Amino acid sequence: MSTDEFVARSHILHRTFSERPSKIVKGDGISLILENGKRVIDASCGPSVSCLGHSQPEVFEAITNHLRDDIAYVYSGSPYTNAATEELADILLADKPGGLSKAIFVNSGSEATDAALKLAVQYWHERGQPKRTHFIGRKQSYHGNTIGALCVSGHESRREFYQDFMSSNVSFVDPCYAYRMKNANESDEAFVQRLAQQFENEILRVGPNRVAGFIAETVSGTTLGCLPAVPGYFKAIREICDKYEVLLILDEIICGMGKTGTMHAWEQEGIRGPDIQTIGKALGAGFVPLSGVLLHQKIFDALSAGSGGLAHGHTFQAHPLACAAAIAAQKIIKRDNLIERSRIMGDKLEALLRKEIGPHPLVGDIRGRGLFWAVEFVLDKDMKTPFPINANFCSQVVKNSLNLGLNILGNLGHTGEYQVDHILVCPPYTVTDGELE
Ligand code: PLP
């Protein structure tokens, strides 16, 4: 069957119309097994999701046990709770990391972003400052695909069709993208100072009493390619947020839950933590759709002193089955020291990438942390010249990799202001030396 015939016949509206997708019939550790028996190494775990690989009998068992012995569905808007939801929140928050003390579980990262924004707005409402509804995000950022999440995402091409829906109560500052934006001879300190000043200026331009929050990925994932900030950046951002009481919202949907070698990526930034944090992907390790929002105690204090409830909710919020699967995944990660393993294997991955791929004339930058790495491609290494817009270089890398049995997530270069052709290399925490090679 030709691609056109397949696309026309399938009742699924696939995300691309130009390629016929191969059918996956099973997962086996890091591998995907296709209908024709071919094995493909899933080097990016989808978009950095399946952090325990594709087959984890203990998680499968937890899911079936839960369905047999417990409740499949509880409506979070009813006067009921359930054991799985409570236990997952306990696992994440018993130690109150950075003062985070309450959780909301939703289905997708985009919903988590929406919930985070709405919580911030409600927080200011309850605090008697209802005019604080403006958010500052960063250019080239991605926080999700719902309209709310897209409003605070600076990624131009994802916003393109929906400009008419984009809120005017959002503005953007530069990301901490040292590879392209740090001037020659500029120190990290001076670069941080420049970005911090731009952020402070933006708060002052909008008016501090109008700014609800600043949203950023702690380590930028798909749009800028596993990009950690330069040292001191988040410290400076946290200080400015504190100065103007702007809420710091850290999006760790892709970079959190152990990916970078610590449970939360912000732990490596020398800050006390965010006021609101989003998590997803590795939370349920891909066995179930699950994301979440973690709130600082101060947010809860304001909400509970206010109108007496949460002005936000979904039908499938805090789904017990999803929480049961995530509990099993998180217990395995803890029991098997997999976050430390992601650090150790991450060092090996970095060394391999730098040795085997780094010298290639089209490889401009290799960056990341833990088991969360990206390779940025350029036309000219010395000049850092990006590929022409629409050259789709990355798509070719992805296609050729697939022919070699390697599934890798590539991001199309053109994001508006910069050309960022990159692939994501983020294998599961259980990856072996042989698989890394
Ligand atoms: N935030 C970040 C940083 C992401 O990488 C993503 C997805 O890739 C999202 C939010 C949106 O998550 P979802 O696709 O689960 O809605």
From TrEMBL:
The keyword Signal is annotated on this UniProt entry: no
Q: Name one GO molecular function term.
A: transaminase activity
Q: What SUPFAM superfamilies does the entry give?
A: PLP-dependent transferases
Q: Which keywords fit this entry according to its UniProt record?
A: Pyridoxal phosphate
Q: Which InterPro entries match?
A: Aminotrans_3 (IPR005814), PyrdxlP-dep_Trfase (IPR015424), PyrdxlP-dep_Trfase_major (IPR015421), PyrdxlP-dep_Trfase_small (IPR015422)
Signal peptide start-end: none
Native source organism of the sequence: Penicillium cosmopolitanum
Protein name (database record)? PLP-dependent transferase
